[in-house]
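dumping this here so i dont lose it again. seq + smiles for zinc ion
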Amino acid sequence: MLVNISEITESITSKKVEYEIVGDELSEPSALKAQDLTLSYYRAGETICFRFTGTVTVDSVCDRCLDELELELDIDEDYYIFPENTPDVDYFYSGEFIDVDEYVREIVVMNMPGKVLCDEECKGLCSKCGANLNYGDCGCDAGDKF
Ligand SMILES: [Zn+2]
Ligand SMILES: [Zn+2]
């Protein structure tokens, strides 16, 4: 989705984010499934402010037991975007448009948890037989389990 810079005013405008999922936003085994984001923007002089709020849904697997799961990540991110060649800032604009897709991709990556667990108490897999111990005891020696 492109935002036309000339249409960004000092009053806040909100839009539903349109973003076509490419599939390479996250590294395997995680994949972006859906987004429900709203972009609010306005300008303060030459500085353009973007605020993204809403949720993104990610398909992933538990790091410990490898069960598939779905993560719903709450998003609330602000960006301050400056004219090209402004020193010491992270985000720039140039030309007529700002490409919102680039921000969406970054938001998805930044909001992924470092560790994905189906449950804080996930028991993981048996080191001997590979059974998912969340579904019950596999019968192997307790000493052989994680
Ligand atoms: Zn798990
Ligand atoms: Zn076992």
